[in-house]
């Protein structure tokens, strides 16, 4: 009662010993405790709750907690997104059902799933109390549970039947505190409160919408602002509730009110005939009841076992992997090369079979002449006219060739060569691109900069999330050894004006404001999407892959039932079970021609241009950097750098190496982009793929101008900040691992460390 702030008006009463839910005294009704603990119910009830009871002619005591869960989840989901709350819209998702003497709601076939019922809510009929009947101020009826329930005749919610459907995002059932329910207008607080609730982000800025409190990355809270009583929030939201008058509250109990709930929970037991025939269950009620109890107990034990198994898997992952560190120090510092003075790269350690499989999987066109490296090669040994691409760009980062305009513009803005980019940098670029495409938001380098900061470490560039920005994705774990998995392609495959950027020159902080409701009008429509491996058809419909030019097809995103999805964002929703379907069309209406402008495609002349004679050695310094060793490790033994790869000092032929496309078999193998319209000319011709002169970065550079001592101090500070950040993240991960270990020890008490 204290937790839910139960007003004394309702005279909440604890039942007598031996009472059941049917024993509510005259003028009182029974409420199930789980309505409040899991279902977020508060008194007085909202207009919506009252209207649901009235429409279905239900008494609230006849409603199971699972029915209340769906009612309240629907209400706060629609309130969070500012959608119209009505019984009609509720019916577009749910169907009334009856079972074992109580009513509930089940999801309608073909409707969007709004929530998953919680596990472990058992024995709810034993947890109840009584309140005055007027606490639920609605025209309730005691409905006959033995009369059938008819199916809904209203269409399910979809883009065709509801104009608000495209703005809806499912929100799982969640326990909300009183302040959260108050700001959602689902709880009426005490009338004398001179306060107004405001939803704030962690940094203090106002949240862009109430839906933010349900986002996984939300770390803000509901703050209470003092106001005058006449401006109190209660007065503003009073119309959302069914509040009885003082006269109703003080009215005497009717003499014939006793026994309204006498038949609560009673129903006509119907056992399927096949059960009597096959199982030969006797008609003894006690034995049937015992069997039901056994089944309920078994379900509960299975649920507990599943939860413990999930916890054990999570604990194993947490204990078996390195703690997640900041991007600046996570993916580049690997045991294979960190002790090499001045940096350097490890040699190839990736099978040709894996290479061939990757080429077939990503539908690599023959135009790019993808080539498997020679034994002993490193990523710095790309031959003349070729560049190095890391396999993880494709396997985890969803990269495809030719690159999109956005990928090219990112490389050009930051004056980067694609071979200098770590896979983690590519993960963020591609995740940003498909997130913004899914929600139809403007894709630009400027908007990308509102979330990410360029970083450099151990000879490679990446991007890290900017402080105070919305987190779009979490870097994947287990992406190690990526410098050993690479291949070569023609430089024009990445048709961009790339530069080989100096890794020993400092990177300045972004000077553009982070994305927020104040700085970007599209921010309220953005929802983070985690990094996910996408197949080729998904990338095609997202306009992030250019398929073979002769395909007479158009991709369409369909729900499981066959209806068109309301938006591309649906494919990233947890409950999406549809797929990308390919519809046959005429060649002139093919999807490729429509999306061609999104890509940087070299012309046939560029593809066939000879390799420039001076293109050799552009990537010779790839991975090298000025090694900064902390003082405490200076005494460690220096590892002698060995000669690896093909850097033997001799000038090799500029002829292109032989490719292995004959082995990369797929439905699209062997096609060419040479016959389709090319993108506007760029200076990255068929040669090195980079500018011959290194261009200074667009953002204000920090080239350590001044005496050597000042430069050394800045280097030391940068190194110290990185080490502190790593230490803090490892400490957090250690705490999480300890918690995970506790789960394992609980499951296996006999084990120890």
Structural write-up:
This protein is α+β, with helices and mostly antiparallel strands and 753 residues long. The protein has three domains: 8-268, no CATH class; 337-703, no CATH class; 704-753. Helix content is 26%, strand content 9%. Helix 9 runs antiparallel to helix 19.
This entry's quaternary arrangement is: single chain
The main sheet orders its strands as: 1-4
Give me the number of helical elements.
19
Number of domain units? 3
Number of strands: 12
Q: How much β-strand is present in the residues?
A: 5-15%
Mean pLDDT: 77
Low-confidence stretches: 271-285, 309-342, 629-656, 660-669, 683-718, 738-753
Largest sheet: 2 strands, antiparallel
Q: Please estimate the helix content.
A: 25-40%
Rg over C-alpha atoms, rounded to the nearest angstrom = 32 Å
Strand-pairing-aware structural class:
alpha+beta
Measure the end-to-end span.
44 Å
Q: What is the 3D shape? A: elongated
């Amino acid at each position: 009662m204290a937790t839910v702030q139960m007003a004394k008006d309702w005279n909440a009463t604890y039942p007598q010993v031996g009472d059941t839910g049917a024993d509510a005294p005259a003028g009182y009704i029974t409420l199930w405790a789980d309505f409040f603990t899991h279902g977020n119910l508060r008194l007085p009830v909202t207009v919506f709750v009252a209207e649901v009871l009235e429409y279905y002619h239900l008494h609230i005591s006849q409603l199971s907690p699972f029915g209340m869960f769906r009612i309240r989840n629907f209400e706060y989901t629609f309130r969070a997104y500012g959608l119209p709350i009505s019984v009609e819209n509720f019916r577009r998702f749910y169907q009334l059902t009856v079972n074992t003497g109580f009513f509930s709601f089940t999801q309608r076939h073909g409707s969007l799933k709004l929530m998953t019922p919680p596990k472990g809510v058992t024995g709810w009929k034993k947890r109840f109390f009584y309140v005055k009947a007027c606490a639920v101020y609605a025209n309730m009826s005691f409905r006959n549970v033995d009369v059938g329930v008819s199916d809904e005749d209203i269409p399910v919610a979809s883009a065709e039947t509801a104009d608000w459907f495209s703005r809806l995002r499912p929100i799982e059932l969640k326990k909300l505190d009183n302040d959260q329910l108050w700001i959602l207008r689902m709880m009426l607080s005490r009338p004398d409160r001179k306060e107004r609730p405001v939803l704030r982000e962690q940094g203090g800025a106002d949240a862009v919408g109430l839906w933010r409190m349900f986002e996984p990355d939300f770390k803000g809270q509901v703050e209470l602002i003092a106001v005058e009583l006449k401006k109190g929030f209660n007065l503003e939201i009073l119309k959302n509730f069914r509040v009885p008058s003082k006269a109703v509250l003080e009215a005497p109990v009717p003499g014939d009110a006793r026994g309204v709930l006498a038949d609560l929970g009673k129903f006509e037991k119907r056992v399927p005939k096949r059960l009597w025939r096959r199982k030969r269950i006797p008609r003894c009620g006690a034995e049937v009841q015992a069997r039901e109890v056994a089944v309920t107990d078994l379900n509960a034990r299975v649920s507990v076992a599943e939860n413990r198994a999930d916890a054990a898997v999570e604990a194993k992952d947490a204990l078996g992997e390195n703690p997640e560190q900041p991007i600046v120090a996570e993916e580049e510092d690997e045991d294979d090369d960190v002790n090499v003075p001045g940096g350097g790269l490890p040699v190839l350690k990736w099978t040709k079979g894996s290479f061939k499989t990757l080429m077939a999987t990503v539908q690599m066109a023959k135009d790019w002449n993808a080539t498997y490296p020679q034994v002993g090669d490193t990523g710095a040994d790309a031959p003349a006219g070729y560049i190095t691409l890391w396999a993880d760009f494709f396997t985890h980062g969803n990269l495809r060739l030719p690159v999109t305009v956005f990928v090219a513009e990112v490389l050009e803005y930051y004056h980067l060569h694609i071979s200098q980019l770590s896979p983690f940098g590519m993960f963020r670029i591609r995740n940003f691109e498909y997130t913004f495409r899914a929600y139809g938001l403007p894709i630009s380098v400027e908007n990308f900069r509102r979330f990410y900061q360029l970083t450099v470490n151990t000879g490679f560039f990446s991007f890290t999330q900017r402080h105070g920005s919305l987190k779009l994705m979490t870097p994947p774990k287990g992406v190690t050894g990526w410098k050993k998995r690479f291949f070569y392609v023609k430089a024009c495959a990445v048709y961009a004006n790339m530069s080989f950027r100096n890794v020993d020159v400092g990177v300045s902080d972004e000077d553009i404001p982070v994305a927020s409701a104040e700085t970007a009008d599209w921010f309220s429509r953005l929802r983070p999407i985690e990094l996910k491996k996408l197949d080729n058809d998904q990338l095609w419909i997202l306009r992030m892959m250019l398929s073979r030019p002769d395909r007479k097809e158009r991709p369409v995103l369909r729900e499981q039932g066959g209806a068109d999805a309301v938006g591309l964002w649906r494919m990233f929703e947890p409950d999406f079970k549809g797929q990308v379907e390919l519809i046959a069309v005429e060649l002139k209406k093919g999807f490729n021609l429509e999306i061609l402008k999104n890509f940087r495609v070299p012309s046939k002349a560029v593809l066939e241009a000879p390799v420039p004679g001076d293109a050799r050695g552009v990537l010779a310094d790839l991975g090298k950097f000025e090694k900064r060793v902390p003082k405490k490790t200076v005494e460690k033994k220096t590892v002698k750098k060995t000669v690896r790869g093909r850097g033997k000092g001799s000038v090799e032929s500029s002829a292109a190496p032989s490719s292995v496309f004959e082995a990369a078999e797929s439905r699209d193998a062997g096609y060419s982009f040479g016959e389709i319209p090319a993108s506007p000319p760029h200076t990255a011709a068929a040669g090195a793929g980079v500018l011959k002169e290194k261009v200074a970065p667009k953002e204000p550079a920090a080239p350590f101008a001044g005496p050597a001592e000042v430069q050394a101090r800045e280097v030391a500070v940068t190194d110290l900040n990185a080490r502190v950040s790593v230490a803090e993240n490892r400490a957090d991960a250690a705490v999480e691992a300890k918690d995970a270990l506790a789960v394992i020890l609980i499951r296996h008490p006999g084990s120890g460390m």
